[in-house]
Amino acid sequence: MIVSNRLPVDHVSGEGGTAEWRTSPGGLVAALEPVMRQRDGVWIGWPGLADQEFEPFEADGIDLIPVPLSAAEVEDYYEGFSNDTLWPLYHDVISPPSFHREWWEAYQRVNRRFADAALAVAAPNAIVWVHDYQLQLVPKMLRDARPDLIIGFFNHIPFPAYGIYSQLPWRRQIVDGLLGADVVGFQRVADGGNFARAVRRLRGYETRGNIISVPIDDAAAAIDGAAADADEPTAEAPMRHRSVGRRGHAIRTVLARPFPISIDAQEYQRLAADPSIRARAAEIREELGNPRVVMLGVDRLDYTKGIRHRMKAFGELLHDGAVSAEDVVLVQVASPSRERVDAYAQLRDEVEVMVSRINGDFSELGHPAIHYLHQGYPREEMVALYLAADIMLVTALRDGMNLVAKEYVASRTDQDGVLILSEFAGASDELRQALLVNPHDIDGLKAAIVQAMEMPRRERMRRMRTLRKRVLTHDVQRWSATFLDALTREDHHDPANRLD
Ligand code: F6P
């Protein structure tokens, strides 16, 4: 069973009062959808609309169980605690997080509802895989009620350093919530290290390498008021990974380690080989006026993505005369996201003022410097854009992984194209042949853009070949198989599993 905030499809109202199901935004769904298509199982999540109840249904061969949210819960749990408290906190406080007790109340209530939905359908010993920062309390809620379950948790976004994490007034409850899982997965080595440190500082539990020893009595004692009514684990309960700790008391072990997520690389290769998509890529270049260089940015419109930084660098290059709008264009796809959260509305204004200024100052008739598209596109169009782009700009200020970087690489079956990649995106741990940049260093970013524009074809192809090898061998199928293997093996506290 998968439990995530969103289902893979959102219920959206179309033109003329019609309603339809559409693929949900974001990397989580893009990564998990192919995994679930290949397996039996159910997906529990919110259908993206407030105050609407839906019966379980099937979409594209996946069984879906919708969890309803009221309008007030969308405000307090989703827009509030998830995206205005946890999101900015976990992304190194790029935007200041807000702490509100009513939001925390809603977060607990909604986490309980997701846990109950899973408990209602979980077979004995079922594998339940919980996803992302919106549902960090669910693993413990499941364990307290049903110690027979095999519980995994994967955090798609960064886990912050303790100095930042410790600002959270409910920091202990969240750590306890996560420790309900058998395996807690992170994107990067550093995220797992930050989590282990938070566990040591807040709970004093022993951590050795990737293994955290959770005293069973302590865990039971920490059950919160709501969970106290549920069946508590007993000495007889079939709790996995249970043993005796160094201080002589009963412990269970939790594996906390990196599992860098990926994409369905074969699918991107397949699309990139499709003649109609290749023709569309050529058409896009033509529509752009056949410039010498096409640069591309593809992001949810989010302040973590560094969209303003890349535009500033491009604007300065135009100002310096290093490039001209006739010669070089930037296509920025910024898909709408979390539009009712203030920081997002403000970012949209800032980005749009910047686009207008740069276009006003540097465009030539028929040659806008920036093509700004505040829309989402189907995957086929995205692959055509990737194929049309000479340079892909991924300049996130902080990003768990960034799957766009991997999608670009997988789509470049022609071995061409240059990826400029922020060292603050998890993908930079693996994609070392990209031009790695610090997006705060505008001069460095400008130099990387110039380097990409001038890079000889041989070097572009050499780098792209290495990048492609990595993405094609480390795809999302391998990611999920590795996670599920770690989750289901009995010996996960084996030192062989350590990744120090
Ligand atoms: O990958 C991070 C993430 O927050 C996912 O959990 C989420 O589904 C996606 O980005 C898109 O965000 P949202 O669901 O808030 O639109």
Automatic annotation (TrEMBL):
The keyword Transferase appears for this protein: yes
Pathway assignment reads:
Glycan biosynthesis; trehalose biosynthesis
Q: Looking at the Swiss-Prot or TrEMBL record, what is one Pfam family this protein matches?
A: Glyco_transf_20
Reaction catalysed?
D-glucose 6-phosphate + UDP-alpha-D-glucose = alpha,alpha-trehalose 6-phosphate + UDP + H(+)
Q: Which UniProt keywords apply?
A: Glycosyltransferase, Transferase
The family database entries (InterPro entries) matched by this protein are listed as:
Glyco_trans_20, Trehalose_OtsA
Q: What is its EC number?
A: 2.4.1.15
CDD domains, per the entry: GT20_TPS
Transferase listed as a keyword: yes
State any single GO MF term: alpha,alpha-trehalose-phosphate synthase (UDP-forming) activity
- What family does the entry list? Belongs to the glycosyltransferase 20 family.
Q: What does this protein do?
A: Probably involved in the osmoprotection via the biosynthesis of trehalose. Catalyzes the transfer of glucose from UDP-alpha-D-glucose (UDP-Glc) to D-glucose 6-phosphate (Glc-6-P) to form trehalose-6-phosphate. Acts with retention of the anomeric configuration of the UDP-sugar donor.
The protein here is known as Trehalose-6-phosphate synthase
Species source reads Gryllotalpicola reticulitermitis
Gene name?
A: otsA
